[in-house]
Amino acid sequence: MQLARAIPFLWRSTRGYRLRPWASPYLRWRIETYWGLHAEKIDRSAFLRFIGEHSGELMRFTRWAGRMRR
Description:
The chain is mainly alpha-helical.
């Protein structure tokens, strides 16, 4: 159920980068401002590590983003 809430946000935020979301300028910017890693240094492994370490927080964020969109 929670993943279903995250999908609309993820779909919008990875437009043009759906097969490689770590290259999305928007997601790189969000990770840079949240995590402090420079956006140009975010590659596939850093992106996946971020997702693994912060999955709970990311789910809360996507729920919040969904509420704000409505």
